[in-house]
Amino acid sequence: MPINSENLRYLYTYACHESEAELCSLELRCLFPGVTLPPDHDAFIHSRRLDPSRSPFLKQRLRIEIDAASPEELLERAAGLSAGERTFRVRYAKTGAPGQPDNEGRLALERQLGMAIHGEPDLRRPETVFGAALLNGRWLCGEMASAEPVWLRQNAKPRQYSTALPARAARAAVNIAVPEIPGIRALDPCCGIGTVLLEALSMDIDIRGADLNPLAAVGARENLRHFGYPEELVRIADMRSLEGRYDAALLDMPYNLCSVSPPEEQLEMLASLRRLAGRAVILTTEPIEPLIREAGFSIRETCRLTKGSFVRFLHLCD
């Protein structure tokens, strides 16, 4: 069946390690409401136009300008595409769907499309990239944007902490908590050295941080300052003393390799979180679902983040 271009306008490709599969699925379903992620595909189609660099798992976004039943029809209709005065090249986007051409076939299709599209080709530094893809038996083509791994810059932050969330996981957690950015105020009440804050700020999210540990808060301020963000966004405070109301919050429950907080303290923290925000992402190293519910939250979804034998649980709550 032809794709309904009025409702489904963009093809996205994505990739993740098997240890991140649950996190990837939850993040993409939050960013793209109603999306279905087939187990045998690495792509989906959705009406939302999103910068693919927003997610650590997205690879490409292709605007569907041609939806054809065959390669021959695709090439025929590609004559109607134009790069205008910009230089361009064509790249094939792998979707993982059945029937993908082999490497020789992909290169041939790129060359043929490049000859059909109007404009000046430039294989090295094109100003525009047109993508081609095969999904659900349909041959698709249109302008394509590729993701940049912007979260990698966190590797250069001056303050590091061994138990901090990996930058990819932090970015995905932020997207789960704040899938729509405009007008949202967010909070990280146990911000540590600022991993979550940096990812949120890089996406222009209005977020504040706090930490009871002065050394952690000072480290977070130094990291924010290093990347050009105001260090005043972080305060030294017990989250149980925080006031105000936020649209979303992310709480990585404090722990170390030797101990975790007692249940009574965890409940106090969760109750404070419920008072501060209506939507929350809660990360834990142990199952504490009864405490989350006792604090007044409903758990919408849970996923696991694994690294070897170490497991974190991410709960999306409201």
Describe the protein's architecture and organization.
The protein has 318 residues and is α/β, with parallel strands linked by helices. The protein folds into 2 domains: 137 residues, VC0802-like; 168 residues, Vaccinia Virus protein VP39 (Rossmann fold). It is built from 8 helices and 15 strands. The strands form 2 sheets. Strands 1, 2, 3, 4, 5, 6, 7 and 8 form an 8-stranded mixed sheet that branches. Strands 11-10-9-12-13-15-14 form a 7-stranded mixed sheet. α2 packs parallel to α3. The longest helix is centred in the middle third of the chain and has 14 residues. The radius of gyration is 22 Å and the shape is elongated. The chain starts with 9 loop residues before the first strand and ends with a strand. The N terminus is likely disordered.
Give the topology.
Blueprint lengths: L9 E5 L6 H11 L11 E4 L11 E6 L2 E3 L2 H8 L3 E11 L10 H14 L1 E4 L6 E8 L2 E9 L20 H11 L7 E4 L6 H8 L3 E6 L2 H13 L7 E3 L9 E7 L10 H14 E8 L4 H6 L4 E9 L2 E8 L1
Parallel strand pairs: 5-6, 5-7, 9-10, 9-12, 10-11, 12-13
Antiparallel strand pairs: 1-2, 1-3, 3-8, 4-8, 7-8, 13-15, 14-15
Helix pairs in contact: 1-4, 2-3, 4-5
